[in-house]
Design brief:
Layout (H helix, E strand, L loop, with lengths): L5 E6 L2 H12 L16 E4 L4 E6 L4 H6 L5 E5 H7 L4 E5 L5 E8 L10 E5 L2 H10 L4 E5 L6 H4 L5 E6 L3 H5 L2 E10 L1 E5 L5 H13 L4
Parallel strand pairs: 1-3, 1-4, 7-8, 7-9
Antiparallel strand pairs: 2-3, 4-11, 5-11, 6-9, 6-10
GO molecular function: ATP binding; ATP phosphoribosyltransferase activity
InterPro entries: ATP_PRibTrfase_cat, ATP_PRibTrfase_CS, ATP_PRibTrfase_HisG, ATP_PRibTrfase_HisG_short
Subunit structure: Heteromultimer composed of HisG and HisZ subunits.
Length: 209
């Protein structure tokens, strides 16, 4: 395998699509190189010396930190939650969303000690409330987080919000925004010198320094 190939970890779904579209527009890769419908997980663009891996979004920093990928595209929320030891090269400017505390509309929106908060982001949630001097218990959920306060599993939730439509449809409302998140380009800290030069060229093409 060509040692100069740059491997990029992409989260499955919209961020992967937007990343490839951006890379094509900047001449970094060729159109149609990644086909999510094929069920393949690894795609090679030999012409441009690029390889792409489709992984779960929470796993992107792990693949990059441990060297299975040289670069990764992932939301700032994931970078903060995983606290992975990686370079954060640049903000790519797409995939905008907010990480918010939310609760039942017209319910008790005041924070208190020993609240139960359902979330995919237990580390950030505990840190956020700890800075306010509030201890909370977190329950980690991976889907349908909006259901938790409705059925009494939690007092509040912390989750990503884009338009807020899902919250409103389930009788919830945003109480506070914890983080504004966009897609970030992250990198492994132990890349060879040869790959560093290629990565610098990719960053330059993307408009970074």
């Amino acid at each position: 395998m060509n040692e100069n190939i740059i491997t990029v970890a992409l989260p499955k779904g919209r961020l992967a699509d937007e990343t490839i579209e951006l890379f094509v527009s900047k001449g970094i890769t060729q159109e149609g190189v990644v086909d999510e419908e094929s069920r393949k997980l690894v795609f090679l663009d030999e012409k441009h010396g690029m390889r792409y891996m489709l992984v779960r979004n929470m796993d992107v920093p792990t693949y990059v930190e441990h060297g299975a990928a040289d670069l990764g595209i992932v939301g700032l929320d994931i970078v903060k939650e995983t606290a992975a030891d990686v370079y954060e090269f640049m903000d790519l400017g797409f995939g905008a969303c907010r990480l918010c505390v939310a609760g039942i509309k017209d319910g008790n929106s005041r924070y208190r000690h020993d609240m139960v908060v359902a979330t995919k982001y237990p580390k950030m949630t505990k840190d956020f409330f700890a800075k306010k001097g509030i201890f909370v218990e977190t329950i980690k959920l991976y889907g349908s987080i909006e259901l938790a306060p409705i059925v009494g599993l939690s007092d509040m939730i912390v989750d990503l919000v884009s338009t807020g439509q899902t919250l409103r449809k389930n009788g919830l409302e945003v109480i506070e925004t914890m983080l504004e998140s966009t897609a970030r380009l992250i990198g492994n800290k132990s890349m060879t010198r040869l790959k560093h030069e290629r990565v610098k060229e990719i960053i330059k093409r993307l408009g970074g320094i």
